[in-house]
Amino acid sequence: MDTIRIEDAKNYVGQEVRLGAWLRNKRGSGKMQFLQLRDGTAFFQGVVSKEAVGEEIFAKAKALTQETSMYLIGTIREDERSPFGYEMQVKDLTVVGESEGYPITPKEHGTDFLMDHRHLYLRHIQPFAVLRIRNTIIAATYEFFNKEGFVKIDSPILTGSAPEGTTELFHTEYFDTDAYMSQTGQLYAEAGAMAFGRVFTFGPTFRAEKSKTRRHLTEFWMIEPEMAWMHQEQSLEVQERYIAYLIQAVLDRNEYELDLLGRDKELMKSYTQLPYPRFSYDDAIKLLQENDFDVEWGADFGSPEETFLANHFAKPVFITNFPKEIKAFYMKRHPDRDDVVISADLLAPEGYGEIIGGSERDTDYDYLEQRIKEQGLDLKEYSWYLDLRKYGSVPHSGFGLGLERAVTWITGEEHIREAIPFPRTMNRLWP
To answer: Domains in the chain and their CATH numbers?
Structure first.
């Protein structure tokens, strides 16, 4: 007898199979018990008929409690009433692990309660669907960059400097010197690009920002490609192809999960249509002012501004060429203007804001040295980075995508904490 997973049920219609599963919930009366089952791949129903299984097995089914684990033997049949489309007519069951007093009952629970029980809440429908989509996005990321000729390199998590020039760092002691949890892998990716041409890093990053918004975590994952011999416009083309590839992968592989979340798949399909609009920072400021936003040139955009701009285009949009003073030191100067840099943020529609930030990198040693000094950074800590401009520097561009922000948008979730298995925020370091 085959032991199957729920997601494979469609291949075993009419056949008797064995299944390992947990009990989500159950209902029943009289001579029928309807078991709501899960096994990590999908959710479906096991039907236990007293007439079919006898007194002993029926009594065992009736006594099951939420999250009890068990082996079930039964026949797979189609079920048009179910979103999944199949169910099991149970013949026998064996309890593997009992579950008493499971805290997350079918009633409504508050966010803090669910986050306090995140280790258990991962079993439920919403995190199940979101995190399976996250897995698809991760897999599709590797596929895309491998197809595009990129080499994956790993940047260090412990660093001696602040790549983004902020003081909001997690400090630690590294033997007898100071160290920081990495904010980004970008500077190391630039070194990799000079060795391999096209590279990407993919790893955890940390920001000690005292922010409690629905878009911020203190620990999150960044995907950061870097490309030698490439100018910004070419980089934007890579970025939009990448986003379209991720969305298409989710549409192709996660229809079931998208339906569980109630996501509009037709709307998502519209996000795969390229190219995405390009809209300058100057024009964005003008548009915002014309629509009664109190914002002046030189200001960075907050959530209301980003939401308005993305919704104005009803699809992802690149905002290009930001003021130099609000961007990182390494961004390339505009050839015709000293007050802006060749940069772009990709804003997602539906109120999700920035999901990608990128730029062409400046290649002038003296200019970068000056910018490092202006921002009060330790020149010694950046000496290795400046070396990249001394020994055969070339035009190069790159960008960074925040994985959790992308997952939040693609799944339609309201808060970024849902996009990672165990979120870390200002007030949460447990579980």
So the answer is: 3-97 (2.40.50.140), 118-419 (3.30.930.10)
